[in-house]
Amino acid sequence: MTQKDITFVADFLTEHFNEAPELYNRKGKYFNVERVGQYLKDEDDDLVSPPNVEGNQWFNFLKNSNHLKESPLLFPYYPEKSLHFVKRQMEGVIEQCLQKPADVIGKSVHQAVCMSLYRTSHSEDSSPQLFKLPFLWNDKTSNVHYVLFTILDNSVSKIHILRRPTDTSRSISNGILAVEFGNFLTNSINESSDSRCYSCLDAHFYDDETVTVVLKESVEQEEKERVLAQLPLS
């Protein structure tokens, strides 16, 4: 260690661990705590060593501005509190700000259509997750919304495509169809195999007219083939 390092540590100990008689009546230790650590304590007690804001340009600026001093847009400052206290205060303000939009948006949303995709037991604890890979795509040109998903209980070799118009005034019908991959790739990959079957690992829209899928060979062995396929939506 250099002499500069030793001096730095000595100054730190001198500044933060001297006896502080004015703190004897306070709960806890009778020494100044490290000034960074006090801000991180998850408690509502006042800081042992609050910061000195004298000469701070921002506080001087606020003090000299009547408009900003009374503005409801500025978050109040708590110089005697830790960051955990300020965080809880800010979370409460944010939650209050978001509550009104949530109520308004919630009341404006209504069910447009209901489709039964599968049935499961009444007990939620015993029900497996059957709905997988939900991927949303909005075709702004045709004003059509698509949802790609798989239903595990039905068939892992199928992906389902749900179509819904975003413009409720249009007469386009809702559509849901399933694309089954099965062994349709057998001839192109291995003509001697009749038992190859592929399941869908993932599926996304590539663009408005093309769906990209990642397929996995459904066999009980480590060397499973992976296939990246581009499927035209038509």
TrEMBL record:
One of its GO terms (cellular component) is nuclear periphery. It comes from the Eukaryota. The keyword Cell division applies. The keyword Cell division applies. InterPro entries: APC4, APC4_C. Residues 136-234 form the Anaphase-promoting complex subunit 4 C-terminal half WD40 domain. One of its GO terms (biological process) is cell division. Keywords: Cell cycle, Cell division, Mitosis, Ubl conjugation pathway. Pfam families: WD40_APC4_C-half. This is APC4 protein.
